[in-house]
Write a structure and sequence with these properties.
InterPro entries: Creatin/AminoP/Spt16_N (IPR029149), Creatinase/aminopeptidase-like (IPR036005), Creatinase_N (IPR000587), Pept_M24 (IPR000994), Pept_M24B (IPR033740), Peptidase_M24_C (IPR032416), X-Pro_aminopeptidase_P (IPR050422)
Structural class: alpha+beta
Largest sheet: 6 strands, mixed
Number of domains: 3
CATH architecture of the largest domain: Alpha-Beta Complex
Strand content: 15-25%
Helix content: 25-40%
CATH superfamily of the largest domain: Creatinase/methionine aminopeptidase superfamily
Strand order of the largest sheet: 4-3-2-1-5-6
Keywords: Aminopeptidase, Hydrolase, Metal-binding, Protease
Pfam family, one: Creatinase_N_2
Number of helices: 20
Protein name: Aminopeptidase
Shape: globular
CATH class of the largest domain: Alpha Beta
Family: Belongs to the peptidase M24B family.
CATH topology of the largest domain: Creatine Amidinohydrolase
Number of strands: 28
Distance between the termini: 31 Å
Length: about 600
């Protein structure tokens, strides 16, 4: 089939390490003019979104680094970029290491680094719209210890220098129908207000657009790959809530639905609303991890009493209701059909044709678009051959694009459908593999199966389960430097908290939560492996059980590459699980495929 260009992702090379020195010098110049000795540049927007619009990519503009998490600290004589293990190799290729020190944030946090280099009298600037109160508190403490000063900056100096900064393209804000939302806004408000009453709060300030979109059953397009309108809300314990959103972009249906449950104001009206709360000495609850310091400062100045605590909507939306679960199952079946069509297409072409990483990314997006229901991809597709796959968050560009040659090819992708969000990774064998490749592939798969088949008592956290995914890799003295799994939203962000599976995940897993299961292995300069499905936490029954028990239902439907499995490493139980999973994939997906793709899937799902 002919593949069209991508509608949802660009493969342009948007960074140039050679620009870093000039931009850093220009930033230092403007800081000096303003009487500042340094400045903090986070990868963030005013809503603390993970995925941000192009015009909010200040960190990428300054340093060249395009990863989804990082922060730079610029001083007069030193500058550092702090990234985690997912991005170590990527940062080395995108950033001029002669002007930016590359620091592993898991080893040395920005505040620890500043504690060693700040001098007395130093004035360190920050943008209060891009930092949370918790972050400001940490920076303030380190500055005070060094006898330096943390200074809020009204006009971000990066914005002054970034003269061709892209503007947000206005997107319509639509209602999210009850058949997909599963619960009305009135019902959600009732659940939310019970939590507010327990916290003795008079008003909740919602600054996370994910929480607002979920609560008011709306969706938008202001953020890349996540159907979000940029908005905030105030939810009082008793009166009507107020939604602060671009009113002109509300569709007639969305506005009619919202006016039944809330007052609607423009985004900049929130300042006067906060002043009013302050004048009444209101008790305002907010989450210090996502509210911008600018709004918190405004509340404090106005006289409001602030109650700090986790956003209660986060926990509510993490537990999917029956409608959302039904939608996620339907979305994953639809996505499984598209993915199997793609895998059949790739299997026919990869060994003989010059299929590139970009060709594969466009092809998979095209098969998803053929469903007629694709709204967007859920993140830029990681289409990675050979050494590129050793970068866990690799982004293919025209400059890095490789032909998928002999060896392992990794593709990590996802889709946004109105009834659900998907995220799936498969590592594909192209031609002959070495015994070492098969060994690593199978150990990753063993870790995946260990999570998928886990049974655990209520109260178990992701940290308790994380080691299950690593045991087979630890046995040979290796590991992977990312979490095993993240939460996933329902036609919202592909990365959603508070649930995770990682060494530091301390939130109990509950029925209705959805998480990814994605152990990996990365041999720098050679290849990478990751195997990912999405899982639904469910209640289970075990004979003679003494405690309430939980387990997982696998949502994703696509075969693992049997050609990459070292069968002698599998236990009898693992072998049986793979065969049972493949039989289920074949049963659910095959009827939706054409003859050629069905024949491919039948062979791909044959018993081991």
């Amino acid at each position: 089939m002919a593949m069209s260009a991508s509608h949802f992702q660009s493969f342009d090379d948007v960074t140039d390490p050679s620009l870093g020195a000039g931009r850093l010098a220009a930033l230092r110049g403007i800081l000096k003019d303003r009487g500042l000795d340094g400045f903090v540049v986070p990868r963030a927007d005013a809503y603390q979104n993970e995925y941000v619009s192009q015009g909010e990519e200040r960190l990428a503009w300054l340093t060249g680094f395009t990863g989804s998490a990082g922060i730079a600290v610029v001083l007069a004589d030193r500058a550092a970029l702090f990234i985690d293990g997912r991005y170590t190799v990527q940062a080395r290729t995108q950033v001029d290491g002669s002007v930016f020190e590359l620091v592993d944030i898991t080893v040395t946090a920005p505040c620890a680094w500043l504690g060693d280099v700040l001098s007395a009298g130093c004035r360190l600037g920050y943008d209060p719209w891009l930092q949370t109160p918790a972050e400001v508190e940490r920076f303030t403490a380190v500055c005070e210890k060094a006898e330096a000063k943390l200074v809020p900056v009204i006009e971000n100096p990066v914005d002054v220098l970034w003269t061709d900064r892209p503007k947000i393209a206005p997107a319509p804000i639509v209602d999210h129908p009850l058949e997909f939302a599963g619960r009305s806004t009135d019902d959600k408000l009732t659940l939310l207000r019970s939590g507010l009453a327990a916290a003795k709060a008079g008003v909740l300030l919602l600054s996370d657009p994910h929480a607002v979109a979920w609560l008011f059953n709306i969706r938008g397009g202001d953020v890349s790959h996540t159907p979000l309108p940029l908005c905030r809300a105030l939810v009082p314990l008793e009166d009507r809530p107020t939604l602060f959103v671009a009113v002109s972009r509300l569709t007639a249906g969305a506005r009619a639905a919202l006016e039944k449950v809330a007052a609607i104001e423009e985004p900049d009206a929130i300042a006067s609303a906060l002043n009013m709360l302050g004048s009444h000495k209101a008790r305002v609850m907010l989450d210090p991890s996502n509210a911008p310091a600018a709004l918190v400062s405004h509340l404090q100045t106005s006289g409001a009493e602030i109650i700090l605590g986790p956003d209660p909507v986060t926990a509510l939306k993490a537990i999917k209701n029956e409608g959302e679960i039904r939608g996620m199952r339907a979305a994953h079946k639809r996505d499984g059909v598209a993915l199997c069509r793609f895998l059949a297409w790739l299997d026919r072409r990869a060994s003989s044709d010059s299929v590139t990483e970009i060709d594969a990314a466009i092809a998979l997006e095209t098969f998803r678009a053929d469903t007629g229901l694709l709204k967007d991809i859920s993140f830029p597709t990681i289409s990675a051959a050979g050494p590129n796959a050793a970068l866990p968050h690799y982004r293919v560009t025209e400059a890095t694009n490789r032909v998928i040659g002999q060896g392992l090819f990794l593709i990590d992708s996802g889709a946004q459908y109105q009834d659900g969000t998907t995220d799936v990774t498969r590592t594909i064998a192209v031609g002959e593999l070495s015994d070492t490749m098969r060994d690593h592939f199978t150990r990753v798969l063993k870790g995946h199966i260990a999570i998928a088949t886990a049974r655990f008592p209520k109260g178990t956290t992701g940290a308790h389960l994380d080691a299950f995914a690593r045991r087979a890799l630890w046995d040979i003295g290796t590991d992977f430097d990312h979490g095993t799994g993240h939460g996933v939203g329902s036609y919202l962000s592909v990365h959603e908290g508070p649930q995770r599976i990682s060494k530091t995940a301390h939130v109990a897993l509950l029925p209705g939560m959805i998480l990814s299961n994605e152990p990996g292995y990365y041999r720098e300069g050679h290849y990478g492996i990751r195997t990912e499905n999405l899982l639904l936490v469910t209640e289970i029954t075990i004979p003679d059980q003494e405690r309430p028990m939980l387990g997982f239902e696998t949502l994703t439907l696509a075969p693992f590459d049997r050609r990459a499995i070292a069968l002698d490493l599998l236990t009898r139980e693992e072998w049986a699980w793979i065969d049972a999973y493949h039989a289920r994939v074949l049963q659910e997906v095959a009827p939706e495929l054409d003859t050629e793709a069905r024949a491919w899937l039948t062979a791909a799902c044959a018993p081991l």
